[in-house]
Amino acid sequence: MSDNLIYAMEVTLNGLMAGVLYALVALGFVLIYKASGIFNFAQGVMALFAAMTLVGIEKGQVPFSHLINAVLGTEVHHFGWHLHSFLAIAFTVVVMIGLAWAVQQVIFKHLVGQEPIILFMATIGLAYFLEGVADLMWGSEIKNLDICLTSNLCMPQGINEAIDQTTYEWFGYGFFIDNLDITATIVAMVLVAALVAFSQYTKQGRAMRAVADDHQAALSVGISLNFIWVLVWSVAGFVALVAGIMWGAKSGVQFSLSLIALKALPVLMLGGFTSIPGAIVGGLIIGVGEKLFEFAIGPMVGGATENWFAYVLALLFLVFRPQGLFGEKIIERV
Amino acid sequence: MSVEQMTTTGVPAEPYVTADGRQIGNVLMEMKNITLRFGGVVAISDISFDIREGEIRAIIGPNGAGKSSMLNVISGFYVPTEGEVWFRGSKRPQMKPYQVAQQGLARTFQNIALFKGMSTLDNIMTGRMTRMKTNMLQQAMWWGKAQKEEGEHREAVEKIIDFLEIQAIRKTPVGRLPYGLQKRVELGRALAAEPDILLLDEPMAGMNVEEKEDMSRFILDVNDEFGTTIALIEHDMGVVMDLSDRVVVMDYGRKIGDGTPDEVRNNQEVIDAYLGVEHD
């Protein structure tokens, strides 16, 4: 087998892994958009907020410590504990559910029935507010996220070495795949399977789909819209946490993390705003596409194609298939 | 309120058995002096009537008479400007529509409000929502009771599917079904809640003769077999007169008649306002 082909295969594989991360972010958008018609610009910031909260709780950081110290003249920074990763994740989930509840009660409860653009503006406000809160709560320095899930602690040692070995025997060339990427892929698969099972086979899942479909009908069978929206924001918050962990482990927990939301946009245009499988396939296509494009065409145009490739692809989709790969085709009955 | 407005003369005040052997009980729901205004527009003006257990109660009237508004008041979608709704002998506090549904009212909509992307089975399954008791955590973890419960509800839903003769479309997304079948699925979803009162908003609207006959048969069967109390709105007079035990007639937001189909048919005001209009 030619070297180039093998190299392309490795690039594809890495692209798939990156695509999983895009898909994770896009998933959060789709969940909220489907159920409430809100395009949640704050999804990326939610991922940032979740990751920061996780690190903060795990390391026993005192929330709002700068503020407290400034007001009270104290010098508190740490509780002095170091929580187990899973415990910290559990606490963070609770925080995200609290956030979901607050967002619904304080903002969107009062905006029911408003124009989509107004809801969208509200999420922009939410994004900047949340970013500020995250800063105030946990400080703005770049944090290291090495929790059990992403380091070698919980992953069986040397999976990537095994892959390296095996592929070397097969092709005479060892593939390198990051341990973190493997974890991310497994976690994403489990997450999606769990989401699908939840929405298909449980009462609340069915209620979620019902609300996504028709508000009036949902009310008439005894579903509280408010409760479902809190639930949806909670689930989206959880997805944001997962995305935040994976991205945070890859590039450190820092404020640029909130920009991953922008990478999710082309994914959504490809996959359709209302399709969960679309978000996943879209993420994978963008991931693989931009890596392969960089590999094949990049050298000819001076590189750095990864910055724009996804958006150009999304533009092409907007022209030829505006509803995305899996989106519902818009047919107006006249 | 005037005494005359509240009483229906054609039927006994006590529980009785109808000519075709159905048991009619006491008053289940009572609307007391309901007025509904939207800004300056009066949609319903001081209307009172009751719905008795086991009966088929129709609300009829020409277009714009305020029938749908009345149904929306009953099902909690509108809050009446004045007046009270009494249910099972006590005054109903102001409720959200989903709370009214949980209390035992199920309804259909004039313009069909189904979950179009979901299958017939799933749609009817959502009707069981108020009947499901396991909590969220059990549901999420799919723990013992939740699984057993799901099975029981599936059974109830299959019975309804059999009853409505829609086995063939169990897995079809309802958005793809023809209008008449969609109406039937919507009826199924309402039935799945095993409601105390079933509210039907123009169940026959837009149907052809055959579909109307089918629907009439299902409504009668539901009432007969399950003893479900039914309140329905229709403006197809013929159908209503054959189906219902008692009829409220509305015109321009007022009640102009209330009684058995025969009484209503012979009421001069009703004839003038509604039946008396010559079309040919």
Automatic annotation (TrEMBL), chain A:
Q: Which GO terms describe its cellular component?
A: plasma membrane
Q: InterPro entries, alphabetically?
A: ABC_transp_permease (IPR001851), BCAA_transport_permease (IPR052157)
Family (UniProt): Belongs to the binding-protein-dependent transport system permease family. LivHM subfamily.
| Membrane topology qualifier | Multi-pass membrane protein
Q: What name goes with this protein? A: Branched-chain amino acid ABC transporter permease
Task: Give the highest taxon in the source lineage.
Answer: Bacteria
Its keywords, alphabetically, are:
Amino-acid transport, Cell membrane, Membrane, Transmembrane, Transmembrane helix, Transport
UniProtKB/TrEMBL annotation, chain B:
| InterPro entries to which the protein is assigned, alphabetical | AAA+_ATPase, ABC_AA/LPS_Transport, ABC_transporter-like_ATP-bd, BCA_ABC_TP_C, P-loop_NTPase
User: Could you state one GO cellular component term attached to this entry?
Assistant: plasma membrane
Gene3D superfamilies hit by this protein: P-loop containing nucleotide triphosphate hydrolases (3.40.50.300)
* Species this protein is from: Actibacterium pelagium
Key word ATP-binding present in the record?
yes
Q: SUPFAM superfamilies annotated for this entry?
A: P-loop containing nucleoside triphosphate hydrolases
Q: Please give the name of this protein.
A: ABC transporter ATP-binding protein
PANTHER family for the chain = ABC TRANSPORTER ATP-BINDING PROTEIN, CONSERVED COMPONENT OF ABC TRANSPORTER FOR NATURAL AMINO ACIDS-RELATED
Q: Which domain of life is it from?
A: Bacteria
- GO MF, one example: ATP binding
UniProt xrefs under Pfam families: ABC_tran, BCA_ABC_TP_C
The reply to whether Nucleotide-binding figures as a keyword in the UniProt entry is yes
Classification via CDD domains:
ABC_Mj1267_LivG_branched
Keywords of the record:
ATP-binding, Nucleotide-binding, Transport
Where in this chain does the record put each ABC transporter domain?
29-277
The cross-references to PROSITE patterns, in alphabetical order and at most eight, read:
ABC_TRANSPORTER_2
